[in-house]
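Exercise 7. Given the encoded structure of a 56-residue chain, write a plausible sequence.
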């Protein structure tokens, strides 16, 4: 069996636009993340910095 090199969880790069759509972020929050990271960031950075409105 070939050894497959796995990337650490959260180190894959995401488009901020795709991330915002997937996690249903507001346009304001999407713009904030764009200002922080630019158009692409690691999943760990996006998850730790995204803010969502409370539904309850």
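Solution.
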């Amino acid at each position: 069996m070939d050894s497959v090199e796995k990337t650490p969880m959260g180190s894959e790069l995401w488009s901020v636009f795709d991330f915002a759509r997937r996690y249903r972020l507001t346009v304001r929050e999407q713009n904030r993340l764009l200002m922080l990271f630019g158009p692409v960031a690691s999943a760990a950075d996006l998850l730790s910095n995204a803010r969502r409105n409370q539904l309850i």
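Remark. Helices lie at 16-22, 27-37, 43-49. Students should compare their own answers with the one above.
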